[in-house]
Amino acid sequence: MASTPAASRTAVPSGVTLAELVQALGGQPQGASQRQVHRIAPLPDADETALSFVAHARYRPQLAASRAGVVIVPPELAQAALARPAPPDGGWAAWVTPDPYALLAALTRWWRVHRQPRPATQGVHPTAWIAPGARVHPTARIGPFAVVEEGAEIGAGAELGAHAVVQAGARVGPGTRLGPHVVLGYDCCIGARGLVHGGTVIGADGFGFAPVPLPDGSGRRWDKIEQLGAVVIGDDVEIGANCCIDRGALGDTVLQDGVKLDNLIQIGHNVRVGRHTAMAGCVGVAGSARIGAFCTLGGGAIVLGHLELADHVHISAASVVMRSILQPGQYSGIFPIDDNRAWEKNAATLRQLHALRERLKALERRMTT
Question: Residue 84: pLDDT above 60?
């Protein structure tokens, strides 16, 4: 079956004017402020019914060629947005703001609620199972075959997707949504307004085993260390699909307010992640690492166990952090990680290493003849 084009999926039958959007979200309209917007689209795919955005002056050529009816732009691009050849149905419109990307983010949230809402689960589905001692707020929504175990608590306006499981003693804060097949382990908690995408497991056992000698002296077996802690997640946290966040061994694994995790991320036991830190896909953080606030970790980055990252540390994609980083900054590399500027110089030298080796060999031959 052919897929539905993005334009058809995102369009709404009745448009909204730029003036209405400005009233709801702020910013400064210029040009045709009564222009109707039916969808939000990337700049190259937008037409006269669409709204798009430009965040940086380097995209000025793409802006000049675009047919977007309304464009969110910084002040320095407002005239460029209005100076395009006029469309057949009237002039262009510019939505001017100092931070186009932030306004776009606010617009997408407004659009989801007011123009393109997703169907929500209504009440408790008849196939869901709620333990007698669980506390589920009357406004919470529990999807098909979801399970809420004894002593668990589901807050006001929270939502559990199909087959989600909230184990004994776990707590889901107000307005938080757990997607299909999410597991929130026993005694774990997530705060308000969170979003956990499908397949994620919060509160599985951390990887803890003690090596014990075998009686015959042939080697060692691995005896399990029970993981007695939990996972504590703050407010406004979003966790992508198929992530694994392990419970603590003795203390708790902690994700503070505003943390954002992409898909397929592993957070080991007893890790602490500071507020508003973001991690891209396939990041791995080994046990007992401490990640500061306002950090970013690029896709595939690895942080070894028991290390510390200060606040405002930014790790490039595929880097391996093998030592603690106690100063803010951008860090890159796997041989080993270093200050970003020093790493770039070393990488440039490494690319020339073979040529330098050949020159050195030629010099040695001349000296020995």
Answer: yes
